[in-house]
Amino acid sequence: MALRYWAVIFILGIGWGMSFMFNAILLRELGPLSVSMGRVGFGALGCWIYVLAARKTVPADARRWLALFGFGALSYAGPFAFYALGQQHIASGVAGIVNATTPALAVVVSHFWPGGERATVLKSLGVICGFLGIVLLSLPILEGGQSSEAWAVLITLCAPLCYAFSVNIARSFRDMEPVVLVAIALTGSTAAIAPLALWSEGLPVITKAETWASLLVIGFVLTSVAFIAFYWVLPKVGPTNITMPTLIAPVSALFLGTYILGETLLAEHLWGMAAILAGLLLIDGRIVRWRLPKPPAG
Question: Which are the contacts of 137, defined by CB distance < 8 A and separation ≥ 6?
């Protein structure tokens, strides 16, 4: 794979890990639903600017738009809200590590999904490692009797669960231009989350420059630009290599949370992350394939 494609994958992993740090900054002034609303709103705006500038074809079928609106609520509005809700009680680094369980949950959902991919022994071991990582992350919380933080881990886990379902639903939209799909889906996400955010948290009032800066970065850069880059590089590197940002994001989230936000780094965080990353490698299967002897030619 060309070096420039590795660079895009590496930058995506770091960027998506940074989103948890920006969530923590936004939560100092905004409610969790408002954080989700701002991210999908600015994300949709950025994608539409690209779609219009590139003159991409937009579907006219109203039923397709409604289906994409529902898909967007599941894929973006829900997960972004769950992360923000969870980060009210847990550190951004922990939320980033929980996010890395997405492939493990996707294996479970795909196994039972009609027409989905059946789990192999190797992938099943990866799922077990992933859930072991969640247990290790939760040990300090359970030992300290912090029920709100224990619930926060479970709430945060709902985000990768949403992703696990959405990747299976996304198959029904394979005939669409990916960037157009994301633009419409993010628009639907905004329409879904905005009434809830305004009803429960009121009109957002932003007084700090750091809040505006975080909102613009997480919306335009880490949502619009990141997804445009993601779908640009996907056909060039393939579906296996494109999962690599999942390995990088938790490391980025933990590092930034510890050294920029001053969050406490525990040994259990590192062990939990190690277990989840081991699970990801088993699910990917690449290392095991490299270790196995190649069959003789001919």
Answer: 94, 97, 98, 153, 268, 269, 272
- Please indicate, yes or no, if residue 271 is contained in any of the structural domains: yes
Cβ-based neighbour number of residue 271 at 10 Å: 15
Question: Alpha-carbon distance 39 to 25, whole Å?
Answer: 13
Predicted pLDDT at 32: 95
Query: pLDDT band at residue 128, thresholds of 50, 70 and 90?
Result: confident
Whole-angstrom Cα distance, residue 78 to residue 93?
20
Boundaries of domain holding 40? 3-287
Query: d(Cα 172, Cα 214) in Å, to the nearest integer?
Result: 34
Q: What one-character-per-residue DSSP string does 186-239 give? A: HHHHHHHHHHHHHHHH-S-----HHHHHHHHIIIIIIIIIHHHHHHHHHHHHHH
For 265, the 3-state DSSP assignment is: coil
Shortest CA distance to 155 belongs to which of 94, 221, 233? 94
What is the average per-residue pLDDT within 206-211? 94
Identify which of 133-142, 160-169, 234-243 has the greatest average pLDDT.
160-169
Q: Which tokens in the block code for residue 252?
A: 């980025």
- Calpha distance 35→39 (Å, rounded): 6
Q: Is residue 294 part of a domain?
A: no
Structure tokens at 20: 């948890």
pLDDT in tens, 240-272: 566 677 777 888 888 888 888 887 777 877 888
**Residues across the chain:** 298
Q: Does residue 297 form part of some domain?
A: no
pTM above 0.85, yes or no: no
Structural domain count of the chain:
1
Q: Is 266 helix (H, G, I), strand (E, B) or coil?
A: coil
Classified as helix, coil or strand, 296 is: coil
Q: Give the phi and the psi of residue 177 in degrees, each rounded to 5.
A: -65, 120
Q: Alpha carbon of 131 to those of 42, 109, 203, 271: distances in Å?
A: 33, 14, 38, 12
Answer whether residue 184 shows pLDDT above 50: yes
Whether residue 296 lies inside any domain: the answer is no
